[in-house]
Specification:
By secondary structure, this protein is an alpha+beta fold. The chain folds into 2 domains: about 140 residues, no CATH class; about 170 residues, Phosphoenolpyruvate Carboxykinase, domain 3, CATH 3.90.228.20. Helices cover about 25% and strands about 25% of the residues. The protein is built from 11 helices and 19 strands. The strands form 3 sheets. Strands 9, 10, 11, 12, 13, 14, 17, 18 and 19 form a 9-stranded mixed beta sheet that branches. The chain has an 8-stranded mixed beta sheet with strand order 1-2-3-8-7-6-5-4, sandwiched between helices. The protein has a two-stranded antiparallel sheet with strand order 15-16. The radius of gyration is 21 Å and the shape is globular. It comes from Enterovibrio coralii. This is HprK-related kinase B.
Length: about 375
C-alpha cells in the first residue's frame, strides 16, 4: 500500500459514509477548524467539550476535519511503532507514510488518522474514544502554530489577562496542579494544561494555549476543593486513605470542565509570557520548598522539562513529517527565553507556598 496516495486512503476510510448536515466550527486565533462527522453522538460530545470555542462562522484560514465513526479500519500495510520519549512505557502510536501524507494508528484503540496538507481524517470507534478525536483536532491547531514558527513547550499556563505564567516539570512534577491551585483567584484564567506555544513578538514573548481541557489525576483533585465535584464521596475518601507517595504516582485521568469548577470567564487563548516556573521539587524531599530566580543559560538541564518533541502528527510546510529520532533544538528555546524570568522550584512540595509566590507575580 506504500504506493497508495492520500486520495486512495481517503476513499477507503470514507466509503459508504453519510455525513450529518450539522457541523462543528471552532474559532481560534488566526484560524477556524470545522469538524464534519457521521455520528450525532460524537458531534454532541465535541460541542460540549469545545463549548468555549464554538462559532457559527468560518474564516478564510479554515481547516476541515472528518471524524468517521466506524469499526477499526483494516489497512493492508505494515505499521511501524513510533518510539516514545524516555520514561514512557508501552506501545502508543504506529505510523505509515504515504505519498503526500501519513497514517497514524492508536495501538490500544485501533483508531486511525490520516494527516496531510489537504485532507485530515479520524476513523474508527470515535464514539468510544472521543478524547482521541479531540487530540486530533488540537493537533491541527498545533501544526498550524508550528508552521507559523511558534515553539512547542511541555507546560501548563495561566494569565491575568495580560501577562502569562508557565509551569513546566518532569513527569508527575505538578505543573497542572500548580496552575489549578491558582485558578480560583479573581482575574486569573486558564491558558493551557500541557502544551504551550511561544513566539517572539514586539518586545515580548507571546504565549498561546490549545483548546484542551486538563486531564488530571486524583492527587490533584483531592488537594483542591474546586475540583471535589469530579469525584464521588467514596472515591474521594478512598484516595485520601492512600499512601501519599502512591497517590502522587497514581495515573487515573479525570476531565476537568474549567468553567464548571471555577466559574465563567476563566479561559483565555493568549498572553504575554512573563515568568517560566520549572518544578524540580519532590514529595520525598522533607526540606522546605526553595524558589530561586535563575538564568536559563546557566541551568541548561531545565530545558529538558520545557522542550517537547512535535510528535508524529506534525507536518512541515513543505509537506514532510518528522521522524521519531528527531529532537527539539535547545538553541531555539534558549534564544526565546533569554529575557524571560525563569524560576526554579526545588526542595519539598508545598503548593500553598508556590501559589502565594505566584500571586506576587500576577499583581
Amino acid at each position: 500500500m506504500n504506493a497508495f496516495s492520500v486520495s486512495d486512503v481517503t476513499q477507503h476510510l470514507t466509503e459508504g459514509t453519510v455525513l450529518l448536515d450539522d457541523t462543528l466550527t471552532l474559532a481560534l486565533p488566526d484560524l477556524t477548524i470545522t469538524v464534519k462527522t457521521n455520528s450525532s453522538t460524537l458531534l454532541a460530545e465535541l460541542q460540549t467539550y469545545f463549548a468555549n470555542w464554538v462559532t457559527a462562522e468560518t474564516c478564510k484560514n479554515n481547516i476541515d476535519i472528518l471524524a468517521i465513526e466506524s469499526p477499526e479500519p483494516e489497512l493492508p500495510i505494515t505499521w511501524q511503532d513510533w518510539q516514545r520519549e524516555p520514561g514512557k512505557e508501552g506501545r502508543k502510536d504506529a505510523w505509515f507514510d504515504l505519498q503526500g501524507g501519513r497514517l497514524i494508528r492508536k495501538v490500544r484503540t485501533g483508531m486511525v488518522f490520516l494527516q496531510s496538507q489537504g485532507t485530515r481524517i479520524a476513523a474508527g470507534p470515535c464514539e468510544a474514544n472521543p478524547n482521541q478525536v479531540i487530540n486530533f483536532i488540537n493537533n491541527q491547531y498545533m501544526t498550524a502554530l508550528q508552521q507559523g514558527d511558534w515553539l512547542i513547550c511541555h507546560a501548563a499556563a495561566l494569565t491575568n489577562g495580560e501577562q502569562a505564567i508557565a509551569f513546566a516539570g518532569f513527569s508527575g512534577g505538578g505543573k497542572s496542579t500548580s496552575m489549578l491551585h491558582l485558578l480560583s483567584e479573581p482575574g486569573l484564567a486558564f491558558l493551557s494544561n500541557d502544551r504551550l506555544f511561544l513566539k517572539a513578538g514586539k518586545g515580548q514573548v507571546i504565549a498561546r494555549g490549545v483548546p484542551k481541557l486538563p486531564r488530571i489525576n486524583p492527587g490533584t483533585i483531592v488537594n483542591n476543593s474546586h475540583l471535589f465535584s469530579l469525584l464521588t464521596d467514596d472515591a474521594h475518601n478512598h484516595y485520601l486513605s492512600m499512601d501519599k507517595d502512591a497517590l502522587w504516582q497514581l495515573e487515573e485521568k479525570y476531565d476537568t470542565d474549567i468553567e464548571a469548577c471555577f466559574g465563567k470567564n476563566k479561559i483565555s487563548n493568549q498572553g504575554s509570557l512573563s515568568h517560566f516556573i520549572v518544578l524540580k521539587w519532590s514529595h520525598k524531599d522533607t526540606s522546605p520548598t526553595r524558589i530561586e530566580r535563575v538564568k536559563i543559560a546557566d541551568k541548561l538541564e531545565l530545558l529538558d522539562a520545557i522542550m517537547k518533541p512535535s510528535g508524529p502528527f506534525y507536518q512541515r510546510k513543505d509537506g514532510s513529517f518528522l521522524t521519531d529520532v528527531e529532537k527539539p533544538n535547545p538553541e531555539l528555546y534558549l534564544n526565546l527565553l533569554q529575557d524571560i524570568e525563569v524560576i526554579e522550584v526545588s526542595g519539598g512540595v508545598d503548593f500553598k507556598a508556590l501559589s502565594a509566590f505566584c500571586l506576587t507575580l500576577t499583581r
